[in-house]
Amino acid sequence: MNKNIFGQYLPIKKAIIRTIGVLTHKTFNNKRFNIQGTTILNEIPKHNVLFISNHQTYFYDVIAMLHVFNASVNGRRDSLKNILYLLKPKSNIYFIAALETMKASVIPKILSYAGSILIKRTWREAGKEISRNIRGEDFDNIIKALNDGWVITFPRGTTDNSKPVRSGTAHIIKSTNPIVIPVKIDGFGDVFERNSLKIKNKTMPFSIKFGNALKFNDDESIQSITNQIEKIID
Predict the structure, then answer these.
(1) What are phi and psi of 221, to 5 degrees?
(2) Which of 177, 135, 108, 151 has the alpha carbon at shortest distance from 5?
(3) Which conformational region is residue 27 in: left (phi greater than 0), alpha (psi within -120 to 50 degrees), or beta?
(4) What is the mean pLDDT of residues 67-88?
(5) pLDDT single digits (tens) 112-166
(6) Which residue, 102, 171, 159, 174, is CA-closest to 133?
(7) Alpha-carbon distances, residue 171 vs 25, 122, 141, 146, 222 (angstroms)
(8) If residue 95 lies in a helix (H) or strand (E), which one and from where to where?
């Protein structure tokens, strides 16, 4: 049985993506969900692409992106019509997620198999502020994932928009020089529960928009890149 770069069985990973997709397709395939800018997804390379996004819910942000990515690479434009795009899910999509979040219960563990790169947060754990260095293995895994495909990251590392953008994303950009795609999600916090799979509002609109590809200069500082990311995701 084929495995990916992290030793996950690809048939199992694809089956999980399909199952999540089928269970949530109706949630996203409706007029309330507005999708923009997916043309860019068919113009970018198949690897070393970093998607940087604001963050509103623990799970639905990523689930929405998995839908949109797979629909787009299978011929849809700004649309999730015809669920058959889930027959051939893109298996080299990864998302950076906090280890403590994705290991908290059975459902996050299952979702984690869909493509998470689990990291230990350097600033927060178990609801408390901390300070520690990034684990070398975490950074190595992110680079490995970029070499293999597309990586989604949430530069604030939290759904709290009052928190600053962390410098980790800038270090990734500085080290790998990826194509950077800005992603703007809106309304997810109003429609979905922040830390569960419950839907709290079935009437409000919500959206996802992809911006143009960005490249950062090699001589830019970590702080400069971080400041630009802050402006982009705001």
Answers:
(1) -80, 165
(2) 151
(3) alpha
(4) 95
(5) 889 989 887 655 555 555 444 566 688 899 999 999 999 999 999 888 887 888 8
(6) 171
(7) 35, 14, 14, 13, 6
(8) strand 93-98
Q: Which residues are bridge partners to 116 per DSSP?
A: 95
**The pairing of beta strand 49-53 with beta strand 179-186:** parallel
Torsion of CA 176, 179, 184, 189, to 10 degrees: -40
35-184-140 Cα angle (round to 5) = 115
H-only helix segments in the chain: 10-28, 60-73, 99-102, 106-112, 136-148, 168-176, 188-191, 222-233
CB 161 within 8 A of CB 54: yes
**Would you mind telling me the total number of residues written for the chain in this entry?**
234
Cα–Cα distance, 54 to 79 (Å, whole number): 21
Q: Give residue 121's pLDDT.
A: 63
Question: What is the bridge-based pairing of β-strands 206-210 and 33-36?
Answer: parallel
Q: Which residues contact 22 (CB under 8 A, 6 or more apart)?
A: 83, 86
Torsion angle defined by CA atoms of residues 67, 91, 229 and 98, in that order, rounded to the nearest 10 degrees: 90
Closest Cα partner for 159 from 69, 24, 59? Answer: 59
What span, in angstroms and rounded, lies between the C-alpha atoms of 117 and 131?
Answer: 21
Enumerate residues 6+ apart whose C-beta is below 8 A from 7.
none
pTM above 0.90, yes or no: yes
Cα angle 192, 197, 202 (rounded to 5 degrees) comes to 40
